[in-house]
Amino acid sequence: MALTPETLPRHELNGLPVRVVESDDASRVGLEGRVVIETTNTLSIEVRDNGESQVLMVPKSGSTFEFAITDEAAGDEKSSGTASKLADTQPDPSEESDESDGAGGDAAGCARASGHAGEGVAYVTVDGSRLLSRPARRTETNGDSPWQ
Amino acid sequence: MDIAAERIERLHELARAAAANRNDDRARYYVRLARRVAERNRLTLPREFRRFTCDRCDAYLRPGVNARVRLQNGHVVITCDCGDHARYPYED
Ligand SMILES: [Zn+2]
Q1: Which InterPro entries does the record associate with it (chain A) (predicted)?
Q2: Which pTM value belongs to this model?
């Protein structure tokens, strides 16, 4: 099950390009970078502006995040360059991620792919409160685990 | 491949990239998270992941940088900077 807009709330967030679209704290709106560290209640985002990189911690609750799923991020991970390709946040101009994946219905409800997907990138908007979970446990909270 | 296995693959790449940037603590964080995901989902970590991480300190090993690799009696002995040894056999 690949990383699709439906599976994103249960998938790995570290390494994904992200933007804060809404936040209780107006100063955080518009932050753009990559997720580098996730904790139960926060995402740390590495923001790069002209060579300087800075890591900012954003609480999950009270913010809405927009993740960009590029094709090579969604596709097969075997190519060893995946992480470095993610590093420069270059969208791969091939195809859309497959959205017909029958993942957890309630994930599909909240993680809607917004309309402005372009050149092989799908943008997924997720309310931060949906991501509140220990990073290792997020995968199990929504079905398809043998422990349900 | 389910989500947990994919997360492990992805974390492996992230750990490797972080180690390549000399960002050792972040590499450890990714290695630990991958281990935690694997144990919670009862998955075996990929062999490459096991060979390139330290069992004791969770460092992502880069031979020649933070790990020493020697051959001994048909075994590879890999020594982490923390002092831990891992050994496994090799075929000629
Ligand atoms: Zn070690």
Answers
A1: RNase_P/MRP_Rpp29_sf (IPR036980), RNP1 (IPR023538), Rof/RNase_P-like (IPR023534), Rpp29/RNP1 (IPR002730)
A2: 0.78
